Every structure is written in C-alpha cells, then in structure tokens.
Amino acid sequence: MQMCADPGALTGINWWLCYLTTNTHYSFYLSFGTVLALIFLCAPVVMLLGFAGALSRRSRFFPLRSIGLVYTSMVRGVPDIVFFMFVPIAMDQAIEAIRHKIKCPQVTDPIFQGNDFVVCTAAKMPLSSSDQWVHEIYGFFLALIAFAIVFGAFAANTLHGALSAVPKNQLETARAYGMNERQVFWRIHLPQMWRYALPGLSNLWMILIKATPLLFLLGVEDAVYWAGALGASKSSIYSFPHGDWRIWYFSALLVFYLLLTSVSERFFKWLTLKVTKEHNLNVVELASRVSP
Question: What pTM was estimated for this model as a whole?
C-alpha cells in the first residue's frame, strides 16, 4: 500500500495495518498452513507404516516378523529428536551420494573427506540454482519422512496391541461360520480392532500435533520460526521498530494449538462413539448368525 511507504509517518490503526500486512507477516500466516500440511500429510503415511509394522510383527515368517520388531523397538528406544535430526541428514546425503555417482562419474575423490561431505555441484539436492520454494518443499519432504518414521513405529505398537486385544472367541466364531482367514481379518478382526486402537491413536495424534514445533529445528520455516523472528526486538534500522513482542506472537501460537487440540478431541470423541456403536452391532449380528 502507498501509505506504508514511510512507516515513520504512520500512527495508530494505519501503523498496525501496514505492520501486519508486510511480506514477513504473510509468511507467518502461511506458516500455520505448513503445520497443518505436515499433520494431515503425515497421518496417512504414519498409518501405512503402522499397519505394515503391526502386521509384520504378527507374521509367521520369521525374517518379516524380525523386521517389524526391530523397527518398532529401535524407534521406541531412541529419543525422538535423534531420529528427527538423523533421518533428514541421512536421506539428504544418501540422495546426493547417489546423484554424485550418476552425474559425476569422472570425479574420483572420496565423498567423505574428514568431517566434510563433498559432492559435485550437479549432484546437489536441490541445485543451488533452484528457486527458494524448491528448497523449502525439499526440506519439508525430508521432515515429513522423519516424522512418519518415528510416529509410524508408535502407531505400529498401538495397532499391534489393538489387534491382539480383539477377543479370540469372535475370531473362532467367524471361522466356525465358514469364513477363511482373509475374510476373518477384513470382516471381523480389522473392524473390531478400531475400538481398542482409537484411544492410543488419538493420543498419538495429540503428540504429533505437539511435536510440530520441531520443524523449526529441521530448518523448516514454520510458525515457531516466524513467531520468534517477528517477535524479537526491532531497532530503528527496521521499517517497523518495536520492542520484544515474542510473548504476543507465542500467545497466538498457544491459541492456535489449543484450538487444534480441542477440535481433535471432539472429533475423536465422536469417532469413538461411532466405532463403539458399530462394534456392538457387529457382535450382535455375528452372534445371531451362529445361534441355533
């Protein structure tokens, strides 16, 4: 806006209108979308890894069962922050190392040179000439994979416990009715499992929400990053100087997370009631089928 050209001449509401519509503030507003995107993109991947890990642990094939057990136990036994920091770095270096071998076969120098990781310019990911949004999307993708691996292990344990909690007599009744193992799993075991899994999955969802500020540590410009940057004390060299306003920016984050968790709690409460009702109907239906 034209009136914002000289911030020093602004007073009252005009100062606030110009201050809150700067490009950095638009980045702050969009960063809330980054948090939501991480949560909603991560959730299906977490569930996919969770089911893969849970079913692997239940497999009769020992190597597959071992993989599932190692995955869930290893991630559970290592602090989350270690994986959040390790996975993006490891994936980034693995991608660049592969690209280095493909794009620069003439370079014979080792990639690891002391404490340095050195690849040719063409192997960089993303390329230094790429637009800023490409770098941001790439960093977000690595963070998404890190979150999915960590929370997928916790989901695997939750789902494994829920599958084991389904009463055996229901499964035996379904087999007695003439269902094969696949039918038992899809028609009885899996639907009944959700009643036992939802409490753990709802807690995991809340933990995932609370873990999103770690995006800041992974180099992603999320809401926490911008709250700290915009709230810090600004001197007269800035267009809009102000004191230390971090408490107000982080209060906005507090309201955002409280609203997000409140909506989540209401959703899981509704979902639990719905699943419990369907569970009871399925039990009654199964019992009526096998009754003489």
Answer: 0.81
